[in-house]
Amino acid sequence: MAKALVDLIARTFPDAIVETSAQHGDETVVLTPDSWKSVARFLRDDPRARLDMLMDLTAVDYPDREPRFEVVVHLYSLTKGHRLRIKARVGDAEGENAELDTLTELWASANWAEREAYDMFGVSFRGHPDLRRILTYPEFEGHALRKDYPAERIQPLVPYRDVPNIEKLAPFGRDEGMPFGRQTHAHGRLEIPSDEPESL
Amino acid sequence: MGDLISNNSEIVTPGDGQGFATTRLADMLAWAQKYSLFMYPFVTACCGMEFMAVSSPRYDFSRFGSEAPRFSPRQSDLLWVVGTIVQRQAPILRRIYEQMAEPKWVLAFGTCASCGGFYDNYATVAGIDKIIPCDVYVPGCPPRPEAVLDGLMLLQDKIQKGDRRPAVVKPRHDPVDDPGLGLVQVRRSRSSRPSNAPT
Amino acid sequence: MEALDQDLDDAELEVASEPMLLNVGPAHPAMHGTVRIVMELSGESIERCDVQVGYLHRGFEKMCERGTWTQVFPYVDRLNYVSPMLNNVGFAMACEKLLGVTVPDRCQYYRMILGELARMSDHLTCDGAMAMELGAFTPFLWMIKGREMIWDLMEEETGARLTHSFGRVGGMAQPPTDGFKENVKAVTKQILHIIEEVERLLLGNRIFLDRLENVGIVSQEDAISLGWTGPCLRATGIPYDIRKSHPYMKYGEVDFDVPVGSASDCFDRFMVRIEELKQSSRIIDQCLERMPDSGPVNVDDPRVILPPKEDVYTTIEGTIQHFKIVMEGLKIPAGEVYSYTEGGNGELGFYIVSDGSGTPYRVRIRPPCYYITGGLERVITGQMMADVVPCFGSLNMIGGECDR
Question: Do residue A144 and residue C59 have CB atoms under 8 angstroms apart?
Fold first, then answer.
C-alpha cells in the first residue's frame, strides 16, 4: 500500500526524491529540502494519499555526514490506514544553516514538534509562527541532543549554594555513587571536556 | 494576681489520669511542631504517584500529623520535594523555599530529589541540596510508602531533638543480616570497622 | 457636609477593560504535572494563552544514547509513570522489530495482561485525579484503592510497585508467578466493582456533570490536525485504537470494543476512560483463558537473552555470553524502525536508529501526551478560567512523558 504512495510521489515530483527505502515495512522517502513543504501538502490533500495526521516530527544528528541533520516525519492516514516516513537532510558539518520549511500550516501538531526539533537540534523552520525553545529554558546555550553536546554539561539557572563540598554533601559519604563509568557512543563525536563541567 | 492561683492543689500519683509534666518550653514547642506539620507538596514527577499512595487511606500519613496540605508556601512548614528537579524548575523551587516562614523543614522524596538519580545529565539538578538545604532524604525510585513513613518519623524525631543535621532513611533490615538468605558480605566499609580493631 | 453615597444609576461605573495576565503553574495545586499556563483574561474568559512545558525535561533521549539497549528500560519506565508496563512493552517491541524476533505466545499474552493492567492503572489515576480536582475526593480515594490492588499484583510479579523495568528485548525478566491468573482475576473483579461504585457516585452528580459537559470541546478536524490519539481522539468520535486498527501481539484475536464519544467534551473523555477500563478487563479475561501455563517466555536466541544463572556459573560459554550481553549490550542490527503501540494516552511510538552497536544511536519516543498538551491552548482559549482544571485533567498530561 505504502509502496504505491512512494511511486505516486515519484511520478508527481520526479525531482524531489533523493532516495527511498523500506526497512521492516516502513516505507521511507528522503526528499530534497526545497520540495519539503509542497510534497507534504500533496500527501495531505491528495485523495490517494490522504495522510491526515502528522504523527511525529523529529531529527537525528549524524555528525559525520553532510548534510548533518535528518528531519524525520511520520505520517499516518486515518482513513486509509497507511503510514509513510518522509525525511529531509539539512545543515552543514557545524550544524549551521539547518533550515527547512515549516509544516505548521498543514498540521497543527507540527507546531510543538518543530519547536522541539529546534530546541534539541538547532534545526530552524522557516515560517514557523512561534519558534521558541520548548523543553529547555530560553537561557540554554547549545542544542542538547546534538552528538557534540556533552551530556553532563549543565547550565544552572540558579547558582548552587555556597557551602563547602557541594558536590557531595553530608550525609552522603565519599564512596557512595555509581562505580561504573557510562558507556558512550563510539560514533558520536562526544568529547570529554578537559576542564571540569561548570559547577557553580 | 494571687486570686488567680487556686489554693486547692493536691498531690497526684502517676498514671491516675490527671496530673502534670514538666518540660522546657522549647521541647514542648518542638513536640507541637512535629505533630502539626503543614506540608507543601512540590510534586513534579513519578514519585508523585507514590505520594498519592502515601496520602491515600491505605498508608495514610495523616496519622502522623502531617495531614493538611497547604498550597501556599507561607502557610506551610514542611516542603516535600517529590520528584526530579530539573534546571528549569530550580528557580521555582528555591523561590518557594524562600517564601516559607521559619521554622521550615525539607524532605527529599525519592532518589532524584536526593541526588539526581540516574539522570546525571544536562537537564537535571543533581539533588535539591545543591539549591536548598535539605533535612531528610528518602531514597528509592520511587520509595516505598513504608520508607516515606520512616522518613517522616525520622524528621519528627529530628524536630523533637532540635537536630538540623541532614539524614538518610536507612533500610530497616540489611539483607546481609538475614540468616535465611545465606548472604555473606565480603567487604565491610571502612567506617563500620570497630575502632579498636588492629589496623 | 454633603452625603457621600453615589447614585449608582447615574454614575458611570468604570470597569477596567484591559486584559489581565494570569500565570498558573508550574507549581500549582490544580495542575497535576508540571506545566505553566500564562493566560490573558478578559473578565473570567481566556482570550489568549501560552502553554509552556519542559519543567520535567530530564534528558531521556540523551541518556538513552549513553547505555546499552537494556539500560533504556528503566528510563522508559519513567516516561509515562502511571503505566510503565506499556512503555516497557512498547520499547521491547520496537527493538524486536528491528531484530526480527517474535516472542513466544505465552509472553505475548503475559505482556498483554500486564499492559492492560497498566492501562487500568493509568485510567484509574486520570479519572480519579480529575474527579478530585473538581472537588469529588471520595471517588479519587476509591480509585486509588483500585490502583493499589494493581500495584500489589505488579509487585508480586515484578518486584516493584511502580517502576518495574520488567520488559526485556525478546521476552520478560521473569516468567509469570504461580498464582498469577487467580490474582489477576481477583483484582479485575474488584476493580470492576470499584468502577461501578464510582459511576453511581459521580454520574448522577449534577455539579460534576455541569463542570464537564460541553466544556473543552474539540472538533474532529482539530483533533486530527493536532495529532491527538488515544482516549482524547476517541472522545471526538474517531475509533482509532491501534489495538484494533493495527493489531499487534494477540489483540487481533481477542474480542473487545473501542468506546467512542460523541460530543468530544471533557465528559466524553472521562467516560471513554471509564469504558476502556471495562474493556481492558474483558481483554484480560480472554488472555487469562488463552495464556499457556507452561512453556517458554523468552525467545530462544542466545544473542538476545541472558543465559540461565546455572549456566553462567558453571559453563564457560554461559559466562562469556552473559558478560558480552551485560557489558557490551545486545547487538541490534543497523537500521531504523518506527514501532507503535497503544499506550495509556494514545499512540506510543518508538523511532529507533541503530548503528549495529550495543548502544542505541537514537531513541525517539513519540509521546502521545506531548501532542495532546500541544492542543491544550486550542481547548481552553475562549473558555472560562474555572474550566481550565477539568480540561487539563481530562487531557491527562503526564509530565515525564510530555517533557521527557
Answer: yes
